[in-house]
Task: inverse folding
């Protein structure tokens, strides 16, 4: 995430998170540190994992005080080990104390997603299948969470509802059937848009292919049916499988031959990576 992207899209979200944590004042900090004092604190890794969100971490303190300096010894995508000194933050001790939790919340969450994503990407090595995220993100955290997936080696599915056409079961029900839904989507959308259709069995798959769908999402189908679906779709449409995909069960999907596997677990179930700000002292 470069500085322009971050400031255009993320600053307001970060400010909202800071306002959530400091509605009027940081009463604890103001009681023990009533005036300016230059200080320094260390950012330490307490677990092995993939670091992600260092720019966001840094930005939290800058939005509180542009004079804060953050020196980083790693960059997003690097592997950190328990005990590593990831960076040092220098500035007004009041700012370091007030921004600590918000900065760590972002960094721990994003690093946890990157770490979990990396572990699943490793399981897909040697196959043609790409790992995708979903829209199952924390409200107001999507830009950060999807960025973390990319840092971990995964790929982003559509960012939001304006970003692509995905006809799911309820869209199909509203349209009156697979064929009708695809035809209506193709008539409405610009020709440059691909149309993806979620199917639950081989009959729906055949209907979607006949209607001209570009991508077929195989939702909660058996491994045997997914293999048949890939054969039927070959040369006609790309394939994606989904449905409660996690690190523990993805191995069964590796040899199916789908183009994509999407997993909501990347963003809704990844544990945080334990990081800490320690050894605050005046300088």
Result:
């Amino acid at each position: 995430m470069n500085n322009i992207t971050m400031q255009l899209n993320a600053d307001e979200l970060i400010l909202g998170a800071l306002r959530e944590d400091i509605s009027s004042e940081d009463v604890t900090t103001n009681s023990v540190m009533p005036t300016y004092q230059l200080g320094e604190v260390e950012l330490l890794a307490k677990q092995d994992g993939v670091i992600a969100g260092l720019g966001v971490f840094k930005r939290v303190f800058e939005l509180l005080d542009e004079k804060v300096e953050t020196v980083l010894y790693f960059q997003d995508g690097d592997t950190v080990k328990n005990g590593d000194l990831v960076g040092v933050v220098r500035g007004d001790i009041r700012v370091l104390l007030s921004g600590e939790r918000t900065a760590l919340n972002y960094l721990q969450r994003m690093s946890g997603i990157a770490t979990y994503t990396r572990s699943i990407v490793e399981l897909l090595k040697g196959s043609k299948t790409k790992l995708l995220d979903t829209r199952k993100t924390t409200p107001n955290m999507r830009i950060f969470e999807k960025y973390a997936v990319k840092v971990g080696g995964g790929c982003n599915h559509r960012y939001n509802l304006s970003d692509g056409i995905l006809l799911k079961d309820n869209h199909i029900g509203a349209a009156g059937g697979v064929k009708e839904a695809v035809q209506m989507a193709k008539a409405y959308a610009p020709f440059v848009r691909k149309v993806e259709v979620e199917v639950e069995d081989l009959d729906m798959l055949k209907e979607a292919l006949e209607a001209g769908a570009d991508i077929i999402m195989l939702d909660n189908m058996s491994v045997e049916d997914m293999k048949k679906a890939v054969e039927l779709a070959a040369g006609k449409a790309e394939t994606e499988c989904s449905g409660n995909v996690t690190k523990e069960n993805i191995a069964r999907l590796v040899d199916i031959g789908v183009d994509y596997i999407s997993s909501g677990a990347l963003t809704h179930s990844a544990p945080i990576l334990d990081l800490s700000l320690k050894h605050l002292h005046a300088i």
The longest helix spans residues 93-123. The chain is about 40% helix and 20% strand.
